[in-house]
Amino acid sequence: MKRRKWHPIPIVGLVLLLASSIVACGPPEEAVAPPPPIEETKTYTNSQYGFSFDCPKDWDELPQEMFEQEEGAAFVVAAGFWAPVACGGGFANVNVVRETLPSRVSVQAYWEENKQRVREELERYTIISERGTEINGVPAVKVVATFDYQVMPVQHVQAFLVEGKTGWVVTCTCTPDCWDEYEPTFSRIVDSFRFVD
């Protein structure tokens, strides 16, 4: 079995970090396994930042050293997991980004600011859907979008949440040709995100 490579995007502000979730690219496996049934999940809990979510039990956690983060940065990648098998030239994955905000803002304002930055930074960024919702009682904005990273087309769902003066972005990503396979898994991951004490 070929080893996966992680190619982090050079971080140009929060926007590129949020969009970097598909960069876990490597040569695709010969046989592409579909994601596990939704009920085969594990709960990941991050006590340092106070959140948890469910993800497929066979997904591997990404070590923090894979993320280039500057000391004292306003945002951090708080968690990341990826699928064990490649699909469409990349590995489906999830990451959670935590951003310290200068002041309290609504989740809609947080999304609008990020949307502007993303449109400026990502090639061919196209929003497929955008809607306000709640995730476990917390107001959120869910966005499904496509863009190109280098030469690879990417599709992701992002959930934007705000808790006090902290912004959160849960991003689940794969290539567009694998979207239908992974969308139910991504929905489960995003909808299971919750804050814990």
Give a short overview.
The chain is of the alpha+beta class. 18% of the residues lie in helices and 40% in strands.
CATH topology-level name: Protein Transport Mog1p, Chain A
Q: Count the E strands.
A: 10
Q: Profile the largest sheet.
A: 7 strands, antiparallel
User: Please, how many helices?
Assistant: 3
Q: What structural category arises from helix and sheet content?
A: alpha+beta
Q: Termini separation (Å)? A: 40 Å
Shape: globular
For the largest beta sheet, what order do the strands appear in spatially?
3-4-5-9-8-7-6
- Looking at the overall shape, the CATH architecture is 3-Layer(aba) Sandwich
The percentage helix is: 10-25%
Could you state the order of secondary-structure elements as H and E?
Answer: HEEEEEHEEEEHE
Low-confidence sequence ranges? 1-32
Q: CATH H level: which superfamily?
A: Mog1/PsbP, alpha/beta/alpha sandwich
Describe it.
The chain has 197 residues and is an alpha+beta fold. The protein has one domain: Mog1/PsbP, alpha/beta/alpha sandwich (Protein Transport Mog1p, Chain A). The protein contains 3 helices and 10 strands; from the N terminus they run αβββββαββββαβ. Strands 3-4-5-9-8-7-6 form a 7-stranded antiparallel beta sheet, sandwiched between helices. Strands 1-2-10 form a 3-stranded antiparallel beta sheet. The protein starts with 12 loop residues before the first helix and ends with a strand.
